[in-house]
Fold this protein.
Amino acid sequence: MVITVGSGKGGTGKTLISTSLAMSIGNVQFFDCDVEEPNSYIFIKPVIEEEIGIETFVPEVDLSKCNFCKKCQEICRYNAIAVLKNKVIVFEQLCHHCGACIWVCPNKAISEKKVKLGTIRKGKSDSIEFFEGRLEVGQATSPPLIRELKKYIEKGKDVIIDSAPGVACPFVNAVYGSDFVILVTEPTPFGLYDLKLAVEVCENLNLKKGVIINRSGKGDNLIEDFCREKNIPVILKIPFRREIAEGYSKGLSLPEIDPQYKMEFKTLFEKIKNL
Amino acid sequence: MEEIVILSGKGGTGKTTLTASLSALIEDKVIADCDVDAPDLHLLLNPEIKEEKEFKGGYRVKIEKERCVECGLCRQLCRFGAISEDFIIDDFLCEGCGLCFNACPQKAIKMDIETAGYIYLSKTKYGEFIHAQLFPGEENSGRLSSEVKNLARDIGIRENKKYIIIDGPPGIGCPVIASLSGADLAIIVTEPTQSGISDLARIVQLTQFFKIETKIVINKYDINFEMTEKIEEYGKRKGVEILSKIPFCEDVIEALKNKMPVVEYSKGPASAEILNIKKKIFG
């Protein structure tokens, strides 16, 4: 079973919940797909056994072969290459590594220059197999790294995926192929607005989903009314408690802050399997 | 005109809370929300939409079976593995680069550009506000962020404004880079948690990579003094000023629930500190 934890809004508690779930049930593969800002290592504390560099390429122009015909600039859908009078500028941050410029160049003046996209870190913590993607700072496109990372998913194993915030391509890439999506929200207008967007993505991809209300308390009805209307189960509520916030700040997962959560998450996992 | 962008790396540290309050306190500015896939600033600024523009960012690429001779060139060229053995394009894997569309000798591939979101030009009681909504699940958030920013710049220049205040997205990827490019100052909002520190280091690395002046705001600094100290040490080491420490304050959540900037909701300790930030940067 592959479960992805997402949220729309950042900072609602995705990582706290995904790591707490993995640490409570054990025997899982855990994937930190928030490759821009991976944090789950703080909670899972894995021993890293292997680091694998992931490369991509950007175009490199050999000016001695270039006749400044601008075909590369015209074909590039990402405005990543600009041809001036006697100079060609490549904007590496805009490049999507598609190779169209290389293909179109009539003079074979463009070649692939390897650049580091990020790192995949593999490790272990008790019975958790830990995998993390870490985008190289300055690189703009995380989806190719997320896809590389997800190749380590083994069929038949239980898998927990921690997604990036937002509802654009990093989230879509993390959530794609999941059996169930946990959407973590908070009872505020921000939480609700972004939850609605995340639900829309799950609906478009035909994914089963449930909602966890974090920092639950006054105002829960805001979220509950929406979930009722959409027929989405609220599968857990975690109350706003100072000791949780303090434990989180030190890098402790929920079962470490309050041992009763171990049972809660085990029950939750069974519940999700039966939904 | 000065461009000030509010970023965080980690989500949920208080970017939008700070941006909304600064928008209420500073005069002579244009406000922009460059978080286009999960935008929240409009919830606090209560905008009245004056103009709406389609964002042409989506694409649908299709192979027309009648024309296709299954030569396989498109599959061979596609770097995203988006074309299946029976020549169907997977929308999810396709990045819309158009290479197959350009290369197909049979001209059997169709590529349509579609609307992927909207850009809004709005009026608020705090001034003009540019924001957007990318359709959920769409790509190209970086380009939409750039378009929002460019529109804000055009208005700022035309109306001779002093500042552009930009609410940025979380992370360090394309929409963040788009929000950041050309900014005069990046204010990074962080929190005193292990995750906050870990993410702070990566976003500061990014702003320094682009050589943009950076200042740090520690939000809810009093929930963990030890971590706050660590952030202060980090700032010193990296030569980044700690601009402000905002205390934890229930009023912030109450203001949010009432859909107002906190400085307008209460005169509590968080509002007082935000006022200090305003004085330090904007006089």
